[in-house]
Amino acid sequence: MAPQPGSYDATALYDNVDIDMVVKVLAQTAFRKGVISPAVVNSASYCAVVSAFWMLKWLSTLYRNQGSLFFAPKPLDWSEQIVVITGGSSGIGELLANTLAVRNVNVVVLDIKPIQTENFNITYYKCDVSQWEEVEAVSKKVIEEIGHPTMLVNNAGVVQGKLILDLRPEDIYQTFGVNTFAHFWILKAFLPNMLKRKSGHIVTVASVLGLVGCAQMTDYTASKAAVVNMHESLRYELNNRYHCPGIRTTLVCPGHVHTPMFSTFTTPNNAFYRFFAPSLPPVTIVKAIITALDSQQSQMLFLPVFAYSSLIMKLLPSFVRDLAQELTNADHGMQHFRKVTAIREDEIKLVQENKKAA
């Protein structure tokens, strides 16, 4: 039926909409010279750069973990996991063990002292993880009584807090034994079965001090630096020599954490430290580790945000590096440090002898 005089036929407008019309409109509006303000252009450029950064980061994660562009991995069944945690009787390890136990995970804690817990699915084994013989013996018990672990959290740590000339041989042996050698012993004991199944997850708890150094921590920083590089080499061995990229690896590099091990460390009271380099509660690290395990992806975690600066610190001018050391009190924080964890028998005897001599 023909349109009545004075009426409006809307269909006529849509009949004339085509690509040529769209191009003409855009040419006279959005893409016309002088129409778009510099502020809009700059904002669009900024958004493009940020989007490109996160896109590359996402693609990098997919590449590292053999991921799919369209399909996420199957949700992790926590009830089927057996998690071994070294140093699981205090600090980060204790909180992690109890948190996982609430998820009905079978948790195995290896430590020199028992864990205080009411969770029935946490099994404790007394073990000095710095000694291969003890790890080897305990690992056989774990496999026989609990099963083959599916996740390993190398968390055990110790700090001496002494100047380099005050370190006794026993101090250095203990530091590297717990902070470095234990990682090798745990892998040597439990990695073979992961290789057979071509799956698993290994968490390496290192430290920001594995990337930068500071006074009165020479043995600690050296031991953590060794662990950081061990983790990286392990990743490439799993990918290219064992051909097991499905075994995930997560490196954790936290700053100062409020745990018993560093309870006598003196933190600075300036505004810069509180804002840019805050001390973290253990729960922050535990949440990050569980999220990493749940994601089933290999990754590196630097906490808090300032920890990422450790990756480029050595490239900065010396005066910038020195200023950072000063503002974070890095070279004086251990000045009044007192060791309160992992105290050896020879240290107790030495203190007693010094008291008698005095």
TrEMBL record:
Which SUPFAM superfamilies does the record cross-reference, listed alphabetically? NAD(P)-binding Rossmann-fold domains
Molecular function as annotated in GO:
all-trans-retinol dehydrogenase (NADP+) activity
Q: Which family does it belong to?
A: Belongs to the short-chain dehydrogenases/reductases (SDR) family.
InterPro entries listed in its UniProt record: NAD(P)-bd_dom_sf, Sc_DH/Rdtase_CS, SDR_fam
Question: Which named protein is this?
Answer: Short-chain dehydrogenase/reductase 3
Q: What Gene3D superfamilies does this protein map onto?
A: NAD(P)-binding Rossmann-like Domain (3.40.50.720)
Q: What does this protein do?
A: Catalyzes the reduction of all-trans-retinal to all-trans-retinol in the presence of NADPH.
PANTHER family attached here? Answer: PKSB (PTHR24322), RETINOL DEHYDROGENASE 10 (PTHR24322:SF736)
